[in-house]
């Protein structure tokens, strides 16, 4: 999981979109998607499967794709045009039905963006088996265990290991908080805060989690605060620009759609970062003067040429 820089640039690129075996989808005995299935196809599949009890969880996956990936990203836009997540994570825990928050079987706790070899937080998974996530000491112990086994690598320009470890732990804690609230969704607002106060104070600020509390107690809070507990839904964005022109001279100054607009909005437009490096490719570096106003009397490029520079341009 995660995206990592190549140490050696490949000489050959192979388009896998036409390989039939990589576009197959199977649901028995488990759900398997081929590596060439698009995000749009995956979303549609997840929504259909979520109607079945066995795959009800796939609706959450589809909603997440819908939230973070716009249409061009889901279909054909190259990954280089989009920001990479520093750390991503996935959690699956089966809790007891008695509301105690006991983890009844080994959970799945996975992270991407830590290092190429790290996937499962195995020590933390084993630690949680048979324990209650509602217990402050258990949650503290799980975070300590996770802290010990998270050892992010560092390859520039990635974020520093300390920052990525903090993100991973925050994702784990946030998910446990959501799980904890779901298990206590019948509690009153005041009772819930009192029950969990010790856990919250030792881990983070109380207002970090207030949105989830609001979502469970809408009938008990002011109307002006209710939206704090709702998941924000981003509407479809659009824009329009108008011009004041003299129609008598059209088409001289007649407004027309931007020629590149459709290609850029659909993700079909190729940018320089989307093309692989070619043999002998040159890169430019912009160097500014350290003198605000002056005259150039001489330029000595020997040092720069010794570092591999092949030419210089002055403006």
TrEMBL record:
Source domain of life is Eukaryota
| Family matches, as SUPFAM superfamilies | CO dehydrogenase flavoprotein C-terminal domain-like, CO dehydrogenase molybdoprotein N-domain-like, FAD-binding/transporter-associated domain-like
Q: What is the protein named? A: CO dehydrogenase flavoprotein C-terminal domain-containing protein
- Residue ranges annotated for the CO dehydrogenase flavoprotein C-terminal domain, each copy included: 73-183
Q: Which organism is it from?
A: Timema genevievae (Walking stick)
Query: What GO terms are given for molecular function?
Result: flavin adenine dinucleotide binding; iron ion binding; oxidoreductase activity
């Amino acid at each position: 999981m995660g995206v990592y820089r190549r140490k050696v640039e490949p000489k050959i690129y192979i388009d896998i979109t036409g390989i039939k075996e990589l576009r197959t989808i199977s649901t028995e005995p488990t759900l398997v998607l081929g590596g060439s299935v698009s995000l749009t196809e995956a979303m549609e599949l997840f929504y259909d499967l979520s109607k079945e009890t066995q795959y009800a969880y796939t609706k959450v996956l589809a909603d997440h794709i819908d939230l973070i990936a716009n249409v061009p990203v889901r279909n054909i836009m190259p990954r280089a045009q989009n920001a990479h997540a520093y750390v991503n994570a996935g959690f699956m825990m089966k809790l007891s039905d008695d509301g105690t928050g006991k983890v009844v079987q080994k959970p799945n706790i996975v992270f991407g963006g830590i290092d190429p070899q790290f996937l499962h937080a195995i020590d933390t998974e084993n630690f949680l088996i048979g324990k209650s996530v509602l217990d402050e000491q258990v949650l503290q112990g799980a975070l300590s265990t996770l802290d010990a086994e998270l050892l992010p690598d560092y390859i520039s320009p990635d974020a520093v290991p300390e920052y990525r470890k903090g993100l991973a732990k925050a994702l784990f804690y946030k998910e446990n908080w959501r799980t904890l609230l779901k298990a206590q969704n019948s509690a009153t607002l005041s009772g819930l805060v009192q029950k969990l106060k010790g856990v919250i104070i030792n881990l983070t600020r109380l207002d970090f989690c207030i949105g989830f509390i609001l979502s469970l107690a809408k009938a008990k809070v002011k109307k002006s605060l209710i939206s704090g507990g709702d998941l924000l839904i981003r509407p479809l964005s659009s824009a329009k620009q108008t011009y004041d022109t003299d129609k008598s001279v059209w088409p001289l100054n007649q407004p027309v759609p931007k020629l590149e607009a459709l290609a850029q909005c659909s993700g079909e437009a190729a940018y320089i970062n989307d093309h692989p490096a070619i043999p002998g490719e040159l890169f430019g570096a912009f160097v500014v003067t350290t003198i605000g106003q002056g005259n150039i009397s001489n330029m000595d490029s020997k040092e720069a040429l010794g570092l591999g520079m092949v030419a210089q341009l002055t403006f």
